[in-house]
Amino acid sequence: MTETAGQGTSGGSVAMGEFVIIGLVKRLAYSLVVLVVWSFSGCNSGTAPPKIGTVAPDFTVQDVDRKVTLSGLRGKTVVLNFWASWCGPCIEETPSLVAMSRKMRDHNVVVLAVSIDDDDAAYHRFIKDQGMDMLTVRDADKRSNDLYGTHVFPETYIIDRNGVLRRKVIGGMNWTAQEMTEYLTKI
């Protein structure tokens, strides 16, 4: 009798353990579904990134130094670069971006480097330290990069002479690479 009672208790414990595991799995599955639904709803909030082959969304940014309107650069190939002085990959790519800007000026290519820095002093120090003699503007309100759905830096859009988006580059890049300078010359 003791053995039967012991076996019944042991079997009951196993059944109870399975019930607990099934309950945990159900809760985990429910939590996962909620997380997936929540994350997809986040993708649809805010501005969606523009699509390659469409007209680049226009914006105007004014900081203490200048006012720049993207559509005012029509007729030129625009390398629209979103960056920040505190961004490691931005720091790494800046020398090649500056060199490419100098090299491509005679080919009707302009770099519009839009900083999202909050700190005006850090922005100006970076420009000076990096020798950035290209068109730069600071968008502390971060409206221009929001318009492009850009929240990871650097991120760059290449816009043709008609204002159409032709390429998107996520992350740092060597802008003096022959492939890139040839591409910029041809579009």
User: Level of helix content?
Assistant: 40-55%
Summing up helix and strand content along with how strands pair, one would put the structural category as: alpha/beta
The span between the termini is 90 Å
- The general outline is elongated
Topology:
Elements: H1 2-43, E1 60-62, E2 67-69, E3 77-83, H2 88-104, E4 109-115, H3 120-130, E5 135-138, H4 143-147, E6 155-159, E7 165-170, H5 178-186
Parallel strand pairs: 3-4, 4-5
Antiparallel strand pairs: 1-2, 3-6, 6-7
Any overview of this molecule?
The structure is a single chain. The protein is of the alpha/beta class and 187 residues long. It folds into two domains: 1-45; 60-186, 3-Layer(aba) Sandwich (Glutaredoxin), CATH 3.40.30. The chain is 45% helix and 19% strand. Strands 5-4-3-6-7 form a five-stranded mixed beta sheet, covered by helices on one side. A two-stranded antiparallel ribbon has the order 1-2. A hairpin with a 5-residue loop joins strand 6 and strand 7 (165-170). Mean pLDDT is 85; it is low at 1-8 and 34-46.
Quick overview:
This protein has 5 helices and 7 strands; from the N terminus they run H-E-E-E-H-E-H-E-H-E-E-H. By secondary structure, it is of the alpha/beta class.
Looking at this protein, list some descriptive labels.
187 residues; alpha/beta; Glutaredoxin; 2 domains; 5-stranded mixed sheet; 5 helices; 45% helix; disordered N terminus
